[in-house]
From TrEMBL:
SUPFAM superfamilies linked: Protein kinase-like (PK-like)
Keywords, sorted A to Z: ATP-binding, Kinase, Nucleotide-binding, Serine/threonine-protein kinase, Transferase
Source species, domain of life: Bacteria
GO process annotations (BP): regulation of primary metabolic process
Domain Protein kinase stretches: 21-280
Listed name of the protein: non-specific serine/threonine protein kinase
Pfam families registered for this protein in UniProt: Pkinase
UniProt EC number: 2.7.11.1
Gene Ontology terms for molecular function: ATP binding; protein serine/threonine kinase activity
């Protein structure tokens, strides 16, 4: 077994023991931590293990968000949502979360490999919409709907991941009150970017932006000069016509995207499923 220093940036690798799990490989690593393939010591179950680094684990705001993510995800049981089996903290203060392991890729990576057929896009959006409707029905707003969080499993199964920015549908606290708005600017709703109260319709907006990305290969407002310009475009600019970048699509696709991404939440589809149904009519 490896003797490791959790304050080191590269402390996790094959053989590392994290509480009751043994790491078998690293899936990816970023500034906040590492996601690994791990084996549960007693049951031998293979999981995806998210482990925060020491600095992030010690930050009160990140600790709270990480624990809330685990609790939200554990409360949801659905074939299109990545299951969370448990979470905890090592004796030296490192936070971890064990999740269902989905071998394969995600929608963003698949798209980077080449243009995605429209039928494939509509299938993915339909699966994610089903997951979102389930979450909303159980009082959870996802808060960060985007293609990298659409995991592509076996048998055409798509799973929605990463509830790190989730909140209750009954939470009337403005988004900005929870701290800096961390949702991905390319897909975030105007009310999220303004730090206002958000509900399920913010997820509908983001799903519409994700649909635009999967259909065209580009996120909405991709040609903005900076991240700040992207934010301002979401707040003030008309949604680009999707047929401008994907001319093979029917003209009705423009209306589907425009409705999903309406600036006023009241003008959007009432649910993710309603958006998916409208998108499927484009076949």
């Amino acid at each position: 077994m490896r003797i490791v220093d959790p304050t080191s940036a590269n402390w996790i690798g094959p053989g590392t023991r994290v509480d009751g799990y043994v790491v078998e490989g690293v899936i990816g690593s970023a500034g906040m931590g590492t996601v690994c393939v791990a084996r549960q010591w007693d049951s031998r179950r293979i999981v995806a293990l998210k482990v925060l680094n020491a600095e992030v684990s010690a930050d009160p705001a990140y600790r709270r968000r990480f624990i809330e993510e685990a609790r939200w995800a554990q409360s949801l049981h659905h074939r299109n949502i990545v299951a969370v089996y448990g979470h905890g903290e090592t004796t030296d203060g490192i936070l971890w979360m064990a999740m269902h392991y989905v071998p394969g890729t995600d929608a963003d990576r698949e798209l980077r490999a080449g243009r995605m057929p429209p039928q494939r896009t509509l299938h993915i959006i339909g699966e994610v919409a089903t997951a979102l409707d389930h979450a909303h029905a159980h009082g959870v707003v996802h808060g960060d709907v985007k293609p990298p969080n659409f995991l592509l499993g076996q048998g055409e199964r798509v799973l929605l991941a990463d509830f790190g920015l989730a909140r209750s549908t009954d939470d009337r606290t403005p988004a900005g009150r929870h701290g800096t708005v961390l949702a991905s600017a390319a897909y975030a709703s105007p009310e999220m970017l303004r730090g206002l109260v958000v509900d399920r319709r913010a997820d509908v907006y983001s799903l519409g932006a994700a649909l635009f990305r999967l259909l065209t290969g580009k996120p909405p407002f991709f040609d903005a000069a900076s991240k700040d310009a992207v934010v301002q475009a979401h707040l003030r600019s008309e949604v680009p016509r999707v047929t401008q970048y994907a001319p093979w699509l029917p003209a009705a696709a423009n209306e589907v995207i425009a409705t999903a991404m309406a600036k006023d939440p009241a003008d959007r589809y009432r649910s993710a499923g309603e958006l998916a149904h409208a998108a499927l009519s484009l076949r």
